[in-house]
Amino acid sequence: MIQLSPSAQKIQALLNSLGYNYTVIEHAESTRTAQEAADRAGCELGQIVKSLIFRGKTSGKPILVLTSGVNRVDEKRISGYAGESISRADADFVRTVTGYAIGGVPPIGHNEKMETYLDEDFLQYKMVWAAAGTPNAIFELTIDDLQKMTEGKITQVK
């Protein structure tokens, strides 16, 4: 068994502690972009979970949008859900609130609890793939479990 990097191991340990039997896979090649992740996983682009962090312009609170690899997030729509204007968070804010760098942000295990929205387009898939703490690490899971572990509101995000 290949030794996982500390960030990927942290996600593996969290999955295990939550009682999930999912395996983090760390690749030699990048999984930083949704297309790279889909290529490594051997799945459709739509099955890739992009973890995007936004910031409330008034409250400054972090907002997590878990969107399908094929979709672009409609910031106006998410602003409506959040009850305030939002903007894409910068790299420093993302690292502060999640503990991870952009390109490896997992859907769970963040430094701060955050409001989470889950792309309804995932409902067409049995399994999806999410980042696991590094730009090379991913894990496969069911949509039901993704929703349970993130407490995400299933909604339209595009």
What does this structure look like?
With about 160 residues, the chain is an alpha/beta fold. It contains five helices and eight strands; from the N terminus they run H-E-H-E-E-H-E-H-E-E-E-H-E. The protein has helices at about 5-15, 35-40, 75-80, 90-100, 145-150, and strands at about 25, 50-55, 60-70, 85-90, 115-120, 125-130, 135-140, 155. Strands 1, 2, 3, 4, 5, 6, 7 and 8 form an eight-stranded mixed sheet that branches. Strand 6 (about 125-130) and strand 7 form a beta hairpin. The termini are far apart. About 40% of the residues are buried. The mean pLDDT is about 95.
Provide the fold topology.
Layout (H helix, E strand, L loop, with lengths): L5 H12 L7 E2 L7 H8 L6 E9 L5 E7 L6 H8 L3 E3 L2 H8 L16 E5 L7 E5 L5 E6 H8 L2 E3 L3
Parallel strand pairs: 2-6, 3-5, 5-8
Antiparallel strand pairs: 1-7, 2-3, 2-4, 6-7
Shape label: globular
Which structural category fits the helices and strands? alpha/beta
Residue share in helix:
25-40%
Mean pLDDT: 97
* Number of DSSP helical runs: 5
Uncertain runs with pLDDT below 50, 5 residues or more? none
**How many strand units?**
8
Largest sheet: 8 strands, mixed
Proportion of residues in β-strands: 25-35%
